[in-house]
């Protein structure tokens, strides 16, 4: 009977060793994946638990403040500035609404003038006996529509700038204000808990230490956001004055020049404020303007 081949035996042993090694690596990888999954799950559960506790404390604090059973941290000067900002935003939103309405209505006027000018020009070709009168009116409407398009460019620029100021710049500051107000409620909630523990004779030292640590953490966050709000309010007010000074001057100059029939001043206003118009929308100057 022939003896087994040693090479086959060695190959079988090596194959078994490789299979065992691969299986061990897969088992270790699976173990690590399960560990990471469990760690992530525990972290999520802990986050939900902390969020629930914080939400409960804040809700309790808000209700207690409304019932007069708990005090709130008040910064009179800062809160008056915040209320002033909200009032300014409401009034600027009204200006924005009316400016958009004016721009929309005036756009209809310009389109109507363009249509009327074309109608007069067409009739001038078909009515020789009234050709000069129709042509005169056609040129007048074309001139008015051209001036109207220039005014529309100024109005649209005004609307766009006020919209950016109100709905972006002011909103960004008010978003920080909301975060500050939420941090204030959180801070007062943890402050109230600490005060209750300090007044309680049965308060344990470990519970007091935990409450003190949570109180200090929320106080730091509250004071940081309060400083952020103060800085943003100051910069916002400076920016608002600068932007509105420019836009109100533009609005006044453009409207005055248009309704006084001063085309040169109207065009100079657009150049002064670097307002570009689409060349395709600008009609050539009529013989009346020349």
From TrEMBL:
Q: Name the InterPro entries for this protein.
A: AH/BAR_dom_sf, AH_dom, Arfaptin_fam
Report whether Nucleotide-binding shows up as a keyword of the record. no
Keywords tagged on the record: Golgi apparatus, Membrane, Phosphoprotein
One Gene Ontology term of the molecular function aspect:
protein domain specific binding
Which parts of the sequence belong to the AH domain?
73-271
Task: Quote a single Gene Ontology cellular component term.
Answer: trans-Golgi network membrane
User: What are the recorded Gene Ontology BP terms?
Assistant: intracellular protein transport; regulation of Arp2/3 complex-mediated actin nucleation
Q: Which SUPFAM superfamilies match?
A: BAR/IMD domain-like
Tell where it localizes.
Golgi apparatus membrane; Golgi apparatus, trans-Golgi network
Report the SMART domains cross-referenced here: Arfaptin (SM01015)
The record, for Gene3D superfamilies, names: Arfaptin homology (AH) domain/BAR domain (1.20.1270.60)
Protein's UniProt name = EOG090X0AQE
Instruction: Report the source organism.
Output: Scapholeberis mucronata
Supply the source organism's classification.
Eukaryota, Metazoa, Ecdysozoa, Arthropoda, Crustacea
Encoding gene per record: EOG090X0AQE
